[in-house]
Amino acid sequence: MATYTINGQVLYVQEAGPAHGPIAILIHGWSSSSFTWAPIIPILSKRYRCIAIDLPGFGQSPAPDNKPTIVGYADLIAQIIVKLNGDHDRAVLVLGHSMGGQIATTLALLYPVLVDKLVLLNPALSGRLSTRVNLLMKPHVMAERSSVIEWLLYMASKTPLDYTDYLLKPSNFAERAHVSEQAYAKIREDARRRGQGQVRAACFVAMQQGDLRGQLGRVEPQTLVLWGAEDNIVPLRDAGAVAEEWPRADLRLIPNAGHWPQFEQTDATLRHIAHFLGLPPTLGDRPVETDNDLAHLQEIAAFLNNSEIGEHLTEAQRLRLASLVLSNGYGSGENVVAMNSNGDEMYIVKEGTLEVWLTTDSGTTRLASMNAGQVAGELALLEGVKRSAELRAGPQGAHLLVLTKEVLDGLAEDDPAMGMRMMQNLAISLGKRLRLQNWRAARAEENAPGLPQR
Ligand SMILES: Nc1ncnc2c1ncn2[C@@H]1O[C@@H]2COP(=O)(O)O[C@H]2[C@H]1O
């Protein structure tokens, strides 16, 4: 596992996926670890640079110096995003499970410029847990604040007196769930990890204090909320808060799943996430069985759904666009367009990175680096002027989808609603980039060592 140090706090993280891909931050829940994301990372890492964090005090990360709070965890994640983002002016995808969902939503409320999309699994939005947890688990958790009691209970768990499974299994999993013994053993190990009694108890309180009811309607990023229909840890009444306060969130219930839909109903969970993010239509490593050309087109269409230009198009519109874009590969550092040349095409990064270089009298500077889903070369195409900068494939090369002016004009003429949506998408992506740059500039001006005042 890799480690990062943020303001003296050491964090263990699991990383997967292309190093220059768009960033996905994965935040586990209470008494868990980055293992939470094991079923999701293989599909997510096909496009995203996945950063699955062990929160301070959980997994392998040492406990924080101060008492943990949900806002404190959100602030820490914001700092990780800023650190990892480098010169990508791009908000990131954030996934959160259970307490991690509460942290992710808090992050989106406090730092909307940093969060592009949210995927929440059984999020502890109100911080209120089930009656079963409060009656059976809470006394145990509170008692474990004392390291002596924690040790005694740990020793008891090695004897036939052990009741861990009795507490864990019916609370966490649906009656007809499919969780492998291996996965359960890891979840159990994380839940009973020694030396975490104090953080566990503090987070119990932190979750209650982090109640987000009444604020959900203000969450800006596009959000998918998945919930196991038989969750006995974070009850479905919090899904009721989503339905009532946050109608823009795409709320999906997963039958025969409890608190861990990603382990209990892996295929259904992955299908929802892949659809939401426009990931290739595969489940794990199994390709969907369709005709090759059609499958290829569907794959590009699904990808476009999550690109800066293709969001919110209908499926038919995306397929049409997919059939009209050209696919081009560029080697490391290869020139795509020269500065000041004429331009009648724009580019959507499919894989790798595309760098923007500006040459002036004082030299050549890299202005930005675009990764999967981002668009470049739109200015010359839309304005009919010369290229404002050079575009060059990044060190790992670039696979680009090319959209010509002729195709774009044709689409807008045939289907004005589609043309309008695509123009709106371009304006939104420029706006997001600008807001992030403004946020950075304000931060630099304040000369704050950490994060700006909110
Ligand atoms: N400061 C910048 N940040 C990000 N992208 C830029 C910046 N300046 C120019 N570009 C991109 O670089 C492209 C060069 O070709 P265009 O002028 O057609 O469109 C331009 C934008 O897409």
UniProtKB/TrEMBL annotation:
Domain (Cyclic nucleotide-binding): residue spans on this chain: 309-429
A Pfam match is cNMP_binding
- Which species? Kouleothrix aurantiaca
- Annotated Gene Ontology MF terms? catalytic activity
Kindly give the CDD domains that the UniProt entry links to this protein: CAP_ED
In its UniProt entry, what is this protein called? Cyclic nucleotide-binding protein
Per its UniProt record, what InterPro entries does this chain match? AB_hydrolase_1, AB_hydrolase_fold, cNMP-bd_dom, cNMP-bd_dom_sf, Epox_hydrolase-like, RmlC-like_jellyroll
